[in-house]
């Protein structure tokens, strides 16, 4: 695979193909996945219409502000990839910035709070035969998970993390704890 092909592959993995139909509707042109990444573009007017029609942006000022940010440093057109990046950005989150920034009281019972948690955090696939990875903990923590699972088992010399009595690969407990501590610093 060449560098160019790898870049295309990485971009295709970033884009959600479910977004392709919306993009096609906005640019009034039907595409396949690869041509969407390589050739298709959306201009400022089409993007503004997308904001008003699909995202229900109310004010012209807000449409203009968002459009300026998305098109900053670019020509008057954006690619499907740039469109996807905008849709998945923090600026386009369904949770308002004020809510995310808000201070919350810790005076309520635990069941009044929502905690994003991860089950079988260490697994990269199915729970019977997949690979365990230390990196999975960091990925989940970066995604906002605040409760991770450590299935700790005794090994001959050192504790390991493994989905017990399955064909999954073990990882060292020490490596996981070190990575979590490093992330939390």
Key traits:
single chain, about 180 residues, mainly alpha, Recoverin, domain 1, 2 domains, 3-stranded antiparallel beta sheet, two-stranded antiparallel ribbon, 9 helices
Structure description:
- With 185 residues, this protein is mainly alpha-helical.
- 16% of the residues are buried.
- It is built from nine helices and five strands; from the N terminus they run αααβααβαααβββα.
- The strands form two sheets. Strands 3-4-5 form a three-stranded antiparallel β-sheet. It has a two-stranded antiparallel sheet with strand order 1-2.
- Helix content is 45%, strand content 8%.
- The protein folds into two domains: 3-92, Recoverin, domain 1 (Orthogonal Bundle), CATH 1.10.238; 112-184, no CATH class.
The neighbouring-strand order within the major sheet is 3-4-5
Helical fraction? 40-55%
Largest sheet, described in full?
A: 3 strands, antiparallel
Radius of gyration, in Å, reads 22 Å
> What CATH first level of the largest domain would be assigned?
Mainly Alpha
Mean pLDDT, as a whole number? 83
Would you kindly provide a brief summary of this structure?
Helix content is 45%, strand content 8%. It is built from nine helices and five strands.
Write the layout of secondary structure elements.
Layout: H1 3-14, H2 18-27, H3 33-38, E1 41-43, H4 44-53, H5 60-71, E2 77-79, H6 80-87, H7 97-101, H8 135-142, E3 152-154, E4 159-161, E5 171-172, H9 173-184
Antiparallel strand pairs: 1-2, 3-4, 4-5
Helix pairs in contact: 4-5, 8-9
